[in-house]
Amino acid sequence: MAQNSTQIFFRSDPNAKELVQWLVEPLSAICMWLLAANFTGSRLGAEDFVVCLMLFLLMFPGKWAERLGVGAAIDVVINWLFVAAILGLLAYATGFYRDFDQQMIIYWVAGTPLLQLLAYALVGWQLRRLFSSEQHIERVMVVGLNDTGRRLAKEVNSRRQYGMQLVCFADDRSGERLGNNAPAPVMGGLEDVADLVRQNDISRIYVALPMASQPRILKLLDDLRDTTASIYFVPDLFIFDLIQARVDRVADIPVVAVCETPFYGINLLLKRLSDIVLSSLILLMIAPIMLAVAIAVKMSSPGPMLFKQRRYGLDGKEILVYKFRSMTVTEDGAKVVQATKNDQRITRVGAFIRKTSLDELPQFINVLEGKMSIVGPRPHAVAHNEQYRKLIKGYMVRHKVKPGITGWAQVNGYRGETETLDKMEKRIEYDLDYLRNWSLRLDLSIIIRTALLVVKDSNAY
User: Fold this and answer.
1) How far lies 428's CA from each of 21, 408, 413, in Å?
2) Cβ atoms of 52 and 87 closer than 8 Å
3) pTM for the full model?
4) Is the peptide bond before 113 cis (omega within 30 degrees of 0)?
5) Residues 207, 220: contact at Cβ < 8 Å?
6) E strands, 288-332, in order
């Protein structure tokens, strides 16, 4: 009875299984911290709560290993060492490490990946056991052998351990038009669906017909009133370039987000909190460097120390972005010429601070103001935005988030001058990929990769 109740819970919420998988990694690290404290006799206090909270923020949502093996074990160890290194750097910078027993930390660092692998094995085994029994398998039919239907069929077939089995397709088109590589037999047309449901004990029907087929869909739903099958409509939204697609509600009306920011709800709080904490720590550490750069800039050539340029921020609204002046000019008009190699406008000090990215340091003040984020799409001059928004499809979508001091495009080689359209297109491609796949872990990875690139990047001048 408990097993049936658990299955009903998982099937009533399609995200429940995913949530369990997301929790395995952070909860393993937290449990290991508590076990290490108990093993070494350390007393738990407020500082332990802070560590556990940081672990959860850094590791959720956790990665899930579908198949365990040497490759998965290596990934687990590398990912864990990355998180441990981040916490170690923060603890060392703040002196927080002095509050903990060193032997406990060693046990925790060494034991977490082992506990994590054990948790993957146990949770995976439990999920497979929960849904692998034939009497609990849900038999699935997909209506519509099109790209959407094939894509859905692939997902169903790859998730047999979650209790679904693809039985057949239904489609009105002839065999010649459908082809011979269907993931499951085509047993009839739309008018046969109700009979096929009864004959094949189908419990789930996924309607993957295009939106233009509304009359056929209404007729199909009417035919299925005499069955007990669950019916799901799969809109062909994948034809769009989806950014953070999700289902939401306006009062009692369900709506589908096709293009949305990743920063809403808890994600918005996590992003802003991480920006405030990291930018505050960084500004404290780099204050002497900023003072030295400011003096060098002021003495190198006439003009202000800071260069303020109008750029597009969140939702395309103009903001003033701060940089140490690296040129003899401070262009901010209708036409802004990008810096090029051996540009005569760049001062001697300016060449050095651009190469080492020291000119960007004042932007941590922009982050504290809330106008920018540490990680995000790099802000372009207003003149460049107006130029490229007409040339590159989806260009303005990058402004669904705050601009960043560094970004996914920059650590993938698209930093500095974009003298050709295809280079700017690749930069935008990476910016949109960042919006689709954002996580706090990705932000931290970009920050570390940026620090490593600063000393050897040849694309900045």
Assistant:
1) 31, 10, 12
2) no
3) 0.65
4) no
5) yes
6) 306-312, 318-324
C-alpha span between 19 and 8 (Å, rounded): 16
Q: DSSP assignment, residue 315? A: G
Query: Count of CB atoms within 10 A of residue 177's CB?
Result: 9
Residue by residue, pLDDT tens for the chain (461 residues) are 344 555 544 454 445 667 787 888 899 999 999 999 999 988 888 888 888 888 888 888 787 776 777 878 888 888 898 888 888 888 887 778 788 888 999 999 999 999 999 998 898 887 777 666 555 678 899 999 988 888 888 888 876 656 788 999 999 888 777 777 888 999 999 999 999 999 998 988 999 888 666 788 888 888 888 887 888 888 776 656 677 777 777 767 777 777 788 888 778 888 998 899 889 988 999 999 999 999 998 888 888 888 888 888 988 888 999 998 888 766 555 555 555 566 667 888 888 888 888 888 999 999 999 999 999 999 888 888 888 888 988 888 899 999 999 999 999 988 766 678 888 999 999 999 999 988 887 888 888 888 877 666 555 54
Q: Which residues pair with 205 in a beta bridge?
A: 141, 231
Give the SS3 label for residue 253: strand
HSE-CB at 130 with a 13 A cutoff on CA atoms is 19
Measured in degrees and rounded to the nearest 5, phi and psi for residue 380 equal -105, 160
Enumerate domains of the chain plus CATH numbers. Answer: 2-132 (no CATH), 137-239 (3.40.50.720), 266-454 (no CATH)
Q: Compute the Cα dihedral for 197, 199, 202, 206 and give only its sign.
A: negative
